[in-house]
């Protein structure tokens, strides 16, 4: 860039304003390290001079187009004194050192506001993607200050800086003048820009977690020889786990711990330390953190409890810990964590307190609670299910489930993801990540009661939102592993058709009842031969399509009889796997007397191997004293069960439930990705201006009826026309203006929601009727303010509303209106924003949704209008972060329209951390 305008000018503020809080943020560099971005301030002059002095001659030449050995006092003053509006400066810092600088300055030219932008990054930090990050943050600040275009002057030989602009996702206009290249681009966010941002975010967050899970060295701070102490237990596990790198015990009172040389502090360790496991009392954390920062440790696992879970003081200490760690480039797992583990033999990391760690496998596991995490690992080991990596994040003050999703998405050694969720750090980001990750790898999640309670909603909401994101939701750890065993070992079912093969009539029908209750369909292979007496009677006759075949119902089990041999099982299972009408097989083995089960396991393995296409899952239940003790009936190879092994369940009901959940996931994954739809006729700028005007000086409030109408009109959402009146003659005048028939309504919430409609008078056809209605309603409610509204087309009453939930973000709800529906809780929920398919699925999801389609109950309604209304509401909440609540109740859906009778809207400060704007850690 050409030499900046450095002489004193009137636009250089003598006393700069306070920098806006949105200019502060912690970010992840491309290598996964943490860097702090903040506004430049006058106090940065000395640090900026040091930064400039450390730059190489080459870097200074590329930035300033010539020698520039030091910053003059005038230059320094102008650089550090900015107004954060027309001139913005940002620095990236690591500890107290500045490692990069970026700034924009408004250009004095006609037309849309444009600014010139420039960057410089310390030589030792080049190649970490800091230029791209700073460009994002400068563009975010510029957009808030109504700057529309960035320009830059770059030396043609400065390929690295040209690449930053080219790869950012902007549409560049380039021109060349000798050795200089002029770049110009609009900074409006586009889909390409968001795609680039998301891809870089995913790569940096995955790298950040990868650095924690594969450190080159580990220090245990608070190491003890006693395995009953936290520091002793984690050190013992690290040493016993065969960690590939050096382990450094830190204990000021011992020269060695467990035969390994110890150090008084981390500072005294002669080698580099990548990961520090902290097991000291809370009061000692401060000095430990100072030592780790001085040593350049890259990550902390804080096992110590006594922080956010103890109350406000503990939470403040926890926040200070994370802020200090991030400010020095460190990420934190915890506090109150169980630890992390990586079973890769090349790493061998067991930095946990868990007494039992499962063997190597292809399942990634994340949870928060330490004791629960230990129980989960023990259960996985009991079931002989191996894990690839494990993280128990404790209070989840920094590293969260979102980070792990980013890591596991591209981790080649992980095929299945298991989550035990108690809360979300960034719900909107979780939904976005889960939708993407689940397209390639199944995610199974236990939604704890704490999560549902935090959401102030019932489990129906959790179920709907998880299903929307493709997450397999379960209610217990047992169900978690039931699904994990199937997903880790068997292919996804191609459809819901299940064959049940077994030798126990009672257990066979138990499996069928469980499967059909979960939405699966029973299909008996036409070549199957029954030997048992267990056929259940059916009401269908022999002539029906699903009627009797050889005395056994076509939708019944293949009953092999109590004397069935392994050969019988092999023949029957193979027939089912060969059938084009079967998508999965549940096998029940229940010999009437104790026998060795190995022959049956061999038969199932042989049947699976002989199947023409090994794309149908097989599940088993072995019921015998000498059953399969590790709950995996047939392994494809020795050692840990893997792909091709056949999972076994304690009873056929659990097998059927696991299969049904996995089948629903398979159907979700088979559906093509649907885009988010923004209907035409949306004026975001007008809506934003209105909300900013109404929000000024307010901590949040309900909009008036007229304000709600004006806001919704910006998004093409129309309320049936009404007028506010204060006497009978105004009511008549309003009716004449609107056109008869009209309705008269009391305006208080008490009267709007009454099921007896005592505060409403409908179908008023003339002045006398309007006057009488006005008089009656004022006498009832005591308020002269009424609404006169044009009568809407008769239809089915519906409700569309949005609330901002602390656990899930903005959640839209749909159902039919009325007291009975409220009592039944017949509502469907989705997280915003809605894709096209999700909007349609929302309208069809309630149990009463058939009333909206043509049938005996009526001609049906215009569901397309309801879907479009949901999409417009989704766009409103996606664009306007101050939107807190909206209720459209009732919406009268008729064959030709969907008309909103009444709407309430609330605005307020943004309570949740939305997934928008430049990349930053939450």
Automatic annotation (TrEMBL):
Pfam families: Acetyltransf_1, ATP-grasp_5, CoA_binding_2, Succ_CoA_lig. PROSITE patterns: ATP_GRASP (PS50975), GNAT (PS51186). Keywords: ATP-binding, Nucleotide-binding, Transferase. Residues 709-747 form the ATP-grasp domain. GO terms for molecular function: acyltransferase activity, transferring groups other than amino-acyl groups; ATP binding; metal ion binding. SMART domains: CoA_binding (SM00881). It comes from the Bacteria. Residues 35-190 form the N-acetyltransferase domain. Residues 1-20, 524-557 are annotated as: Disordered. Residues 1-12 have a biased composition (Low complexity). This is GNAT family N-acetyltransferase. It comes from Nocardia coubleae.
């Amino acid at each position: 860039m050409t030499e900046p305008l450095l002489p004193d000018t009137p636009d250089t503020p003598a006393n700069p304003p306070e920098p806006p809080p949105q200019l502060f943020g912690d970010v992840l560099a491309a290598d996964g390290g943490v860097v702090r971005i903040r506004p430049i301030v006058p106090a940065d002059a000395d640090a900026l001079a040091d930064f400039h002095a450390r730059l190489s001659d080459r870097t200074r030449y590329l930035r300033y187009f010539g020698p520039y050995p030091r910053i003059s006092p005038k230059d320094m003053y102008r650089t550090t004194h900015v107004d954060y509006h027309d001139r913005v400066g940002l620095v990236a810092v690591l500890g107290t050192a500045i490692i990069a600088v970026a700034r924009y300055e408004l250009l004095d030219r006609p037309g849309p506001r444009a600014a010139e932008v420039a960057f410089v990054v310390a030589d030792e930090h080049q190649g970490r993607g800091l230029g791209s990050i700073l460009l994002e943050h400068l563009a975010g600040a510029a957009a808030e200050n109504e700057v529309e275009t960035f320009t830059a002057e770059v030396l043609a030989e400065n390929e690295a800086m040209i690449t930053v602009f080219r790869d950012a996702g902007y549409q560049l206009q380039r021109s060349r003048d000798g050795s200089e290249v002029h770049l110009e681009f609009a900074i409006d966010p586009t889909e390409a820009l968001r795609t680039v941002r998301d891809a870089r975010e995913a790569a940096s967050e995955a790298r950040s977690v990868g650095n924690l899970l594969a450190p080159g060295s580990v220090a245990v701070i608070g190491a003890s020889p006693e395995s009953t102490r936290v520091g002793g237990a984690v050190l013992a596990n690290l040493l016993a786990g065969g960690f590939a790198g050096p382990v450094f015990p830190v204990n000021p009172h011992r020269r060695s711990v467990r035969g390994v040389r110890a150090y008084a502090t981390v500072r005294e360790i002669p080698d580099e330390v990548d990961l520090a496991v902290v097991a000291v009392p809370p009061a000692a954390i401060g000095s430990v953190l100072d030592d780790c920062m001085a040593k350049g440790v890259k990550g902390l696992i804080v096992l110590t409890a006594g922080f956010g879970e103890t109350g406000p003081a503990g939470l403040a200490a926890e926040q200070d810990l994370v802020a200090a760690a991030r400010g020095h480039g460190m990420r934190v797992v915890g506090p109150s964590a169980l630890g992390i583990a990586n079973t890769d033999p090349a790493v061998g990391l067991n930095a946990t307190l868990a007494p039992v760690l499962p063997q190597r496998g292809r399942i990634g596991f994340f949870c928060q609670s330490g004791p629960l995490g230990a129980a989960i690992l023990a259960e996985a080991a009991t079931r002989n299910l191996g894990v690839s990596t494990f993280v128990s994040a404790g209070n989840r003050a920094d590293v969260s489930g979102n980070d792990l999703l980013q890591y596991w998405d591209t981790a080649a050694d992980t095929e299945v993801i298991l989550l035990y969720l108690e809360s979300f750090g960034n719900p909107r980001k979780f939904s976005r990540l889960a939708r993407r990750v689940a397209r390639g790898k199944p995610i199974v999640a236990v939604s704890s009661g704490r999560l549902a309670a935090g959401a102030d909603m019932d489990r129906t909401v959790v179920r709907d939102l998880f299903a929307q994101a493709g997450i397999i939701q379960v209610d217990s750890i047992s169900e978690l592993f039931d699904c994990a065993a199937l997903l880790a070992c068997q292919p996804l079912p191609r459809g819901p058709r299940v064959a049940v093969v077994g030798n126990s009539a009672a257990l066979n029908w138990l499996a069928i009842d469980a499967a059909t209750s979960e939405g699966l369909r029973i299909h008996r292979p036409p070549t199957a031969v029954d030997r048992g007496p267990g056929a259940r009677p059916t009401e269908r006759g022999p002539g029906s399509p699903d009627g009797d075949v050889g005395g056994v119902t076509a939708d019944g089990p293949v009953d092999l009889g109590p004397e069935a041999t392994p050969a019988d099982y092999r023949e029957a299972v193979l027939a089912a796997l060969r059938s084009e009408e079967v998508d999965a097989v549940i096998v029940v083995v229940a010999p009437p007397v104790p026998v060795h089960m190995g022959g049956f396991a061999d038969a199932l393995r042989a049947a699976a191997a002989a199947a023409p296409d090994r794309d149908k899952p097989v599940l088993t239940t072995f019921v015998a004293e000498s059953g399969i003790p590790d709950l995996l009936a047939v392994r494809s190879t020795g050692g840990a069960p893997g792909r091709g092994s056949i999972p076994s369940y304690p009873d056929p009901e659990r097998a059927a439930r696991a299969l049904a959940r996995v089948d629903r996931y398979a159907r979700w994954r088979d559906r093509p990705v649907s885009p988010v739809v923004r209907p035409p006729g949306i004026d975001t700028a007008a809506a934003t201006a209105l909300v900013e005007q109404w929000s000024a000086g307010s901590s949040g409030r309900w909009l008036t009826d007229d304000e709600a109408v004006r806001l919704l009109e910006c998004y093409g959402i129309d309320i049936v026309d009404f007028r506010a009146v204060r006497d009978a003659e105004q009511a008549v005048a309003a009716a004449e203006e609107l056109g008869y028939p009209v309705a008269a309504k009391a305006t208080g919430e008490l009267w709007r929601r009454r099921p007896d409609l005592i505060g409403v008078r409908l179908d008023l056809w003339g002045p006398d009727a309007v006057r009488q209605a006005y008089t009656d309603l004022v006498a009832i409610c005591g308020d002269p303010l009424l609404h006169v509204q044009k009568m809407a087309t008769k239809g089915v009453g519906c409700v569309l509303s949005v609330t901002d939930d602390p656990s899930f973000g903005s959640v839209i709800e749909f159902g039919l209106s009325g007291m009975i529906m409220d009592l039944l809780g017949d509502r469907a929920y989705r997280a915003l924003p809605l894709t096209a398919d999700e909007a349609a699925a929302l309208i069809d999801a309630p149990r009463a949704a058939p009333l909206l389609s043509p049938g005996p109950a009526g001609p049906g309604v215009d569901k397309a209008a309801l879907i479009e209304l949901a999409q417009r509401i989704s766009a409103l909440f996606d664009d306007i972060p101050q939107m807190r609540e909206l209720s459209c109740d009732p919406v009268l859906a008729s064959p030709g329209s969907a008309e909103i009778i009444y709407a309430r809207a609330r605005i307020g400060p943004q309570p949740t951390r939305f997934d928008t704007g430049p990349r930053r850690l939450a």
